[in-house]
Design goal:
alpha/beta, Rossmann fold, five-stranded parallel sheet, 12% strand, 490 residues, elongated, 2 domains
Length: 490
């Protein structure tokens, strides 16, 4: 893979100087077009490769040649305590740029898998899982219009040694050389073997492989790749026809899980009070056990308007230590959130190990209201089924305990609750024009909800549809499901 690359010669100083002016002009014009376009998107540079191959210097050049106000450099080191207490990709999602802006990433998501492959002798299965996670991450970003530019910078063994010696003797660059770099030279062949595997298998986004020894060529190739790819993607998006909105129809199996619920289920009086007290006591004890074991808990509540989500959440939160949980009510995305990948705001809300996060509505808005109202294109909501399953898989792999509840209320009962809210002053604020508008599309919502219950229901993070015509019955069902799951997982 690298043999022909090592024989390439660098361009001369005169040619470099002659080309730089035009390149720098094109870089600025391309960056301005990216920022000003109505179809702008985020750009992520990923720099990986051999130690000493010029990654840091290339980042410095890009910051010098372009408008650095709209660029951010992320040089990842060992995870901080806060980062270790969340899924591995949390810190990378946190740093995803918004539309029109650029991230320059060093030692990013390729660093740990390669180091573990070489130094810790991780099993093939572990390395395979790392590759799957990387491909899923990049696939989600790419499918949602993020342009990822990946550069693998190579040096042969002799040139790497020469380069490290040169950098270490220069007072301005000696900081770049760490003790691990010298150790890695002795493992050069193993690093090359692992590098080839990563390059070949992590192919969701193509690599540009560069001879790091050729400083002039290296800088120009990276800049030219940015100019070409950004303009190419802008041309596609700016000239694309506006997608036509289609009628709502089943996308999954068409199985009507909502129709199987017995909405006549009820629970009253003393039995409710007894069960509530018992379950809340159990929940408090289990929540403390989860806190001691540093297991985070994520509860997702979705459901029709006035289905009783808030009431269920209150019965849960009253059994918890207020210092250990947060309730996150999800509304329409802000301007900043709209400028990011739709999962970005949810990744930023993932709890630390040992804490509990309760979502009153969630990332499933992509497959519900955004699909119904046309805020997401057909392509966007269709691919979101897999993206959300991957997202929840990442959380589960870290050790998060995830429970998802759909509260289903009948259409007549919903109407009664709406009318009741109109007459009660302290509940009136809950009823909005949007609630009535959503009710007018009741049948469409039943279709898309069943698709979610079908295609995002997995063994490790299943959906729990709850009949909620009787609020007390629904609250006990939710608490029993939660307590039983915690007993099983803890």
């Amino acid at each position: 893979m690298f043999d022909n690359l090592e024989n390439q010669e660098d361009i001369g100083k005169a040619e470099f100087k002659a080309r730089v002016l035009a390149i720098r002009t094109e870089l600025i014009l391309t960056q301005q077009r990216l920022r000003n376009s109505e179809k702008s998107f985020p750009v992520i540079f990923v720099f990986a490769g051999v130690d000493g191959a010029g990654k840091h210097e290339t980042v410095d050049v890009l910051n010098d040649w372009m408008d650095a106000r709209w660029m951010e450099t992320h040089a990842y080191t060992k995870p901080t305590e806060e980062e270790r207490m969340r899924p591995e990709f949390w810190r990378y999602w946190r740093d995803i740029p918004q539309n029109g802006e650029i991230s320059l990433c060093l030692s990013a998501w390729y660093s740990r898998p390669l180091l573990n492959y070489v130094k810790k002798g991780h099993s093939k299965g572990t390395f395979k899982r790392d590759i799957v996670e990387i491909n899923e991450f990049e696939k989600t970003l790419k499918a949602n219009r993020t342009l990822i530019l990946k550069f693998w910078m190579h040096l042969d063994k002799k040139k790497q040694l020469d380069r490290l010696e040169y950098l270490s003797k220069n007072a301005l660059t000696s900081w770049q050389v760490k003790s691990d770099d010298w150790e890695n030279v002795g493992l050069y062949e193993d690093f090359i073997k692992g590098s080839i595997k990563l390059i070949e298998k992590c192919d969701e986004v193509p690599w540009t492989i560069i001879n790091g020894a050729n400083e002039n060529s290296r800088q120009l190739e990276v800049a030219e790749t940015f100019i070409k790819q950004v303009n190419k993607q802008l041309d596609i998006y700016e000239n694309a026809e506006k997608p036509q909105k289609v009628a709502i129809a089943p996308f999954g199996s068409g199985h009507d899980r909502l129709g199987e619920l017995d909405l006549k289920q009820s629970l009253k009086g003393k039995l409710y009070d007894e069960k509530l007290a018992e379950l809340q006591a159990d929940l408090f004890s289990l929540s403390q056990k989860a806190h001691r074991k540093q297991r985070s808990i994520i509860l997702v509540f979705e459901g029709a308007d006035a289905a009783g989500k808030g009431g269920c959440i209150k019965r849960i939160s009253r059994a918890l230590d207020a210092r250990q949980y947060d309730v996150q009510s999800i509304a329409a995305p802000t301007k900043e959130e709209l400028a990011h990948n739709y999962l970005w705001r949810f990744w930023n809300e993932i709890p630390l190990d040992g804490r509990i996060k309760i979502f009153d509505r969630s990332w499933y808005g992509r497959l519900l209201v955004e699909r119904i109202e046309g805020f997401a294109t057909d392509v966007e909501w269709q691919q979101a089924f897999d993206e959300i399953n991957d997202f929840e898989g990442d959380l589960q792999a870290h050790g998060c305990i995830i429970l998802k509840f759909w509260l289903q209320v009948g259409k007549d009962e919903q109407y009664n609750r709406f009318k009741e809210r109109e007459t009660i002053p302290y509940k009136k604020w809950k009823l909005t024009d949007e609630d009535w508008r959503n009710r007018d599309r009741w049948d469409d919502y039943q279709i898309v909800i069943n698709d979610v219950l079908d295609l995002c229901h997995t063994k490790v993070h299943p959906w729990h549809p709850i009949a909620s015509n009787c609020k007390k019955y629904a609250r006990i069902e939710v608490l029993e499901t939660l307590v039983n799951r915690l007993k099983n997982d803890l």
